[in-house]
Amino acid sequence: MSNVAVEVNGRSYSWPKKPVVGVCVDGSEPGYIEDAIKAGVAPCFERMLVDGTSKIAD
Question: Looking at the predicted structure, is the pLDDT value of residue 1 above 70?
Fold first, then answer.
């Protein structure tokens, strides 16, 4: 892969140093995933929230 900048929507970003994965969970209320984590039934989402980044979009 190239190490040039990536341009999206008129903004330029540096090429990531590590692989990047984006996950979009559409149609979920913000609290549902956190409740599932508390109930112990969503270990993958728990790892994502602990080790990654969580953002809510409108």
Answer: no
Distance between CA 17 and CA 20 in Å, rounded? 9
Cβ–Cβ < 8 Å for 42, 49: no
Dihedral sign of CA atoms 10, 28, 32, 49 in order: negative
Nearest to 30 by CA among 1, 56, 58, 9: 56
Give SS3 for 49: helix
Question: What H or E segment, with its residue span, contains residue 37?
Answer: helix 30-38
Q: What is the pTM of this model?
A: 0.58
pLDDT at 35: 95
CA-based nearest residue to 15, from 26, 4, 1, 24: 4
Q: Which phi and psi angles does 37 have, rounded to 5°?
A: -65, -45
